[in-house]
Sequence to fold (133 residues):
Amino acid sequence: MSRQQGMSSLAMVLLVLVLGTLLLTGLNQQLTTYGKQVSGESLFVRHQASVQSALEWGRVQRWLIQPDAQCRQVNTSRVCLRRLNESRVLLIAGSNDLLLWRTGTIAEGQILFSPHGWSDFCPLNERSQCQLP
Fold:
């Protein structure tokens, strides 16, 4: 009789080990998934910070008023100034699929950018004007 109790105890220990292994495997998969999400978000935040930096760099550059579109390269981003009409300009910075914009005006031969900062959506109705040339 004591031998039967030993077998049931052994079966319970094995069952607990199997359930513990399954639980740990599931938690490991969940941790791996969350790790990939955090890595992707971290990469996106660094990429956006780089484009924001390029946009700010472009804001303080001396741009010519005459060409309708002119571009400069900074690190991995391109910064372009597009003249929309006689009094408005659009500064565009981006790389890959991320673009940021900042509007500005031309007054007395100088370009003055909006003090309201950058925009992560196109401020114009015509989408083709918001693309990098």
Remarks:
- The CA atoms of residues 83 and 133 lie 11 Å apart.
